Structure formats: C-alpha cells, structure tokens
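Work package 3, deliverable 3.1, input record:
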Amino acid sequence: MTVKPTILTGDIQDILDGLKHKPGALLPILHALQDHYGFIPSVSVPMIADALNISTADVQGVITFYHFFRTSRGGKTTIHICRAEACQSRGSRETETYIKQKLDIDFHQTTDDGAFSLEPVYCLGNCTCGPNLRVCDDIHARMSKERVDDLLTELGREAG
Amino acid sequence: MSSIKVYVPTDTTSVSLGADKVAAAIKQQAENNKVAVDIVRTSTRGMFWLEPLIEVETREGRIGYGPVEPHNVDALFTAGFLEGGDHPLRVGKVDDIPWLAEQQRRMFRRLGATRPTSLDDYHETGGLKGLEKAIHMVPQAIVDEIKTSGLRGRGGAGFPTGIKWQTVLDCSGSEKYIVCNADEGDSGTFADRLVMECDPYSLIEGMIIAGLAVGAEQGYIYLRCEYPRAHKILNQAIETAYAEKILGDSVLGKGKRFDLEVRLAAGAYVCGEETSLLESLEGKRGLVRAKPPLPAIEGLFGKPTIVNNVLSLTAVSDILATSGGEYQALGVGRSTGTMQFQLAGNIKRGGLVEVPFGISLEELLYDYGGGSASGRPIRAVQVGGPLGSYLTEAEFDTPMTYEEFTEIGAVLGHGGIVVFDDTVDMAQQARFAMEFCAAESCGKCTPCRIGSTRGVEVIDRIINNEDREQNIELLHDLCDTMDAASLCALGGMTSLPVRSAIQYFHIDFEKEPEVNP
Ligand SMILES: Cc1cc2nc3c(=O)[nH]c(=O)nc-3n(C[C@H](O)[C@H](O)[C@H](O)COP(=O)(O)O)c2cc1C
Ligand code: SF4
C-alpha cells in the first residue's frame, strides 16, 4: 500500500482550485481529497465550504450522507466485504464472520497495528462469483476461508 | 510466421478469477517456447463459470479453453492449444456453445468479441451506425423511432423511453441534460457494468443520440464507485471519442455539440433513484425529491433532463442502427425487445443471458443455469434486486414480462436473478431486507427510516420465538405503513421480499430459536 501524504492546506487548495468550477463540484472534490489522503481531512471542510460558497454544515452533511466517504484515516489496507444477497447465497455470512474473528475487529474499525480496516459494501457487481471482497481497486472472488487466509498473508500479515 | 492471436478477457469478473495472471503465464511460456503469440485483451462473453476463458484464433474460428488457471498454461502449450489442440479445458468453438448461441444478443452483441476501448473494433462491428443515421434526422423523427420500438426503461420501473424523451423534447429552452444512471445498486446485477467495461462506445453513442433527440449538449454518467474498472474504461473511451470528434463541439463534424463526463457516486443505494441521483450530481445529500415536477421537466439544476439506465441508452444505439419496428417485433405484448437477465448467486452456469421477454425462470435456472452451484435443490429465487419478491418453484413457469410479474406480485426490475439453495434461512433474508432499508434509507420519510429499524427488531423477536403471532401481525402492519407512506420504492417495496418470505417460507419463521452457548 502506498503511504498517504501529510496534510498540507496548499495541496488541498490546489485540489479545490482545480475542481470548484465544475457544476455540482462537491462530490468530485470529496473524491479527489479521499483519493489523495485516504479520508477527508477535517481542515479541508471550511476550505471546501469557502470555495463553493456553502456552509460547513452543508459540507459535513454531504460527507456523512455517503457511506464511501470517511473522516478519519483508516488502516493501511481497507477491506470492503460484500454483504448483499448474491454473496449471501454463496456463503458470505461465514466469510464475514471469519474475517472479523481473524482480524479481531468489526465493521468501521481498524486493527491495533493499523494494518487493516473493515468496511461493508452492498454489491461489487461480481454476483456469480461470491463471496467477494474489494481491496483498493481489486475485486477478489470466491473468498472461502482458505482464500481469505491466502489474501491476508499476501497483504502482509501472517495468517493465524 | 505471423503470430497467433490469443484472446484473454479484461473485465472485473475475469480478472477477479485470475485472467491477468493467465495472460502473463501465456506470454512467458510463449517466450520460453519461442512462438510468436499476440495476446489480445478483449472482454468477457458473460459465461462466468468458464472464466478465465481464453480463446485462440484458428482456421475454424475462435476455440475456447476455460476456466484456465495459471498452472494449466504449461499443459495447454503441450496440448497444442495454439492450434486448437485437445485438452480437458477445451470448450470448442466459442460461438457454437449453445448457452451463447441460443441467446439473441443485441445490447450485448460485442461482449467478448472486441477490445473494449478500441474505436476501430467498435466501428468494424457496426458501431456508430445509429449515430450516423441520427445526425441526419430531425429530433422528432429520432424520438418517434424510439416510440415505435416500444423500448421501456431498463433501470427497473419499465417506463416507456419514447414518452420520457418526448416530454424533454417538448420543453423549451436550450439548457437540457442527458443523465445516464449507472448506479447499478441491485445485488445480482452486473449488466450495466458489462456494457461499460466491455462495450463502452455503445453507451456513449446512445447518449449522444439522446442529446440529438431532445436538444441537449451535456451528458453525465453517474457511476457507482464500486466499479473502478468501468470508471477507467469509460474515461479512456470518452477521451478517444473526443479525439475522434465523436464527442465535443461538432459531433461527427456536423456542427452539433455534445459533451460527456463521468461522475462518481459514493456508495449510497438510494442514489440510484433518479431524483436522489440528481441531488447527488448537484453536490448535495441524496434526498429523494417529491414528484412532480418530473425530472423530464425540472431535472438537473432545474432543467429538463433525461434520466435513463445504461441499458436503455445502449438499446437506443441498437434501435437507431436497425429500426424501431424490428425491435418492437421482439418480446411479448408491451414488453418489447430483449431483456438482460443476470443469473447470479448460487447458480452453476451464471452470467449474462440476453433473450426476448417471455422466457420462464425455469428455462433460465435450469436450461441456462444448470441448477445450483452447490448441487443442492434451488429453494428460493429473488428477482429484481433487494426490493424484489422471493419466489419459489411454484412461480418458476411464469413468463418473464413486466405484466406477468406484476400479476404475481413480483417485479422484473433490472433483471437480476439471485439463486439460493435449500440451506437458506428465509427469516434471515427477511431480516436483511429490513436491515438494508434501514442502512440505505435517505431519511426523508419516517415509515422508511424508523419503520425499517423497527422491522429488524420485530423479525428478531419472531426468530427468538417471542410472541410470534403478535409480532408477525405487527410486521404486516409495519409493511402496510411503509407501503403506504413512503415517497420512493426503497421504503415502499421493502415489504415485497419481507412478505414473500413469510408467505412462501413460513416454516423458517417457526423454527426453534438457536441457543447461544
Ligand atoms: C431505491 C431505488 C434505486 C434505484 N436504483 C437504480 C439504479 O441503480 N439504476 C437504474 O438505472 N435505476 C435505478 N432506479 C430507477 C430510477 O429511479 C429510474 O427509474 C431509472 O433510472 C430511469 O431510467 P430508465 O427509464 O431507463 O429505466 C432506482 C429506483 C429506486 C426507487
Ligand atoms: S422511502 Fe425511504 S429512501 Fe425513499 S424517500 Fe422515503 S425515506 Fe427516502
């Protein structure tokens, strides 16, 4: 995983200046910030409000409405687990329980060593090959317990 | 000697099953063996149980091998697969596989055949024909062609596309928008993704035609952020379309402007609802708007807006390239054309089945699907996404049309079919439906926001055998309230999976509760 950069208001301003002229610019801005930092830094909120001429409450309201945006730094790797029906029909409930036990965290939490965060997701569109997980932009299919072990090992943490 | 063409797919599913590793292994082995191999990255055929399916160009046509894992590559070379040689993974001539050959693919006719972002491949396979025709037509004539086709929106509600377009065309003013709904939130659906990853120009073409039809110069594709690969491919295709003057200030050099941009969603299911989507595009929370005003009249930024599903717009390219009449002749009654059925979940041969409306679930589940993946009996099937009813074997012979499904209290929705075997606990599925509604409610209506949370609690009490009868009654009352007083289908249709689960699978609500040690 790449190390996320330190938060500099100059960088944030550059992102804002590049996007604020778009019609309906708020979501593109939030995506750009999260892409860059891995989350939406709190210092950016008043800056966004200022750039778009809306209130900080408006910005905050939008950030909290959408599941994808996060306001704190997560683990080095975030694992999104599909919880939707097609994956359920292929055993995702067991996979979900297994990963939670293995990492000893619940959804929206990060392991003590800061290696992994866990988030739910409702469908990754790979619905014939569940249970599915997403790590960065990669989708991992047919995630049995064995394949979860392999993946976690591959992601830099000894299974067990 | 000229090099041998080997086709390896690049879509999400194939890659999730190892297609990139297989491509690398073939390249390596070819180098070792000093044979000239040209690895062409195409897309999937939508036969997911065979992925990664690799195809070799031979004199007889493309011969397929699948599912291939990297460790099979050595043996494939030994078996002479580059000349179509025999091997246990050989599936024969791909175009002749009955699962594929018996479909009537129109929206998906390029699936697996072309390189997704190659405009040349698109053109050579009949792409841009519809647009080349439409650019010489007056707007009303384009709208009339769509009306003649009988095309109904593929996003779920099945609204006639031609009528929607007429409303936007009839609005005065020059600022209008074409919005493509690519939020594809229903579990068990991936057809929109397949179009965007495998044949992006067919969507782009459909959007430009829509722009010409109603006089709009700006389009947006609202794409769910769970589809990173579709995002990348769409952006590449759009860039090429600009460079080739298909998009921009003079479409095909004929002086009409159309601009197109992809906007990423942020993980809210309700933003697939068209007015919530528009709020989101405007940079707001995705609160559902009351209708009227219709988006066709007051849509994005208050301007007349077409909101159409990915496949509706893809079908438009096909209809203009052929004719509205030809399209209308397919299907049954007012369900015209072909439908994208997506066989998903616990199914042996899952994937994309495009056939005219009217096929039965029975045929889809057994003739195409081959039964469950686990080999156990199929017990329940959810059609039409998380707001669709659970069906049992008794309904499997129902013809799949909008009308027939309404008749049995079910929905076709976006065509997703999720299969469960006999290990499913339907009380848990009913609970999940309520849980999902609670998690995804936009919060505007109390019955949806609060009712769904209550619903989870009530179902938990039923599962735990606390005053079962009263709680089942209470659950029905709750469903009634949600049905009656919800602004959109999220609150208004969560009752479908819940009630159908109780009705058809009541024994799952009568079990001894599990005792936690
Ligand atoms: C909760 C909810 C979610 C929806 N999600 C989608 C979706 O993901 N994609 C889609 O095309 N339509 C979705 N719809 C339907 C849209 O509101 C709308 O009917 C559709 O985009 C219109 O396009 P069409 O006429 O081409 O189908 C959803 C509706 C509701 C109520
Ligand atoms: S039914 Fe639910 S999701 Fe739909 S508008 Fe009401 S609160 Fe929002």
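Chain B has a mean pLDDT of 96.
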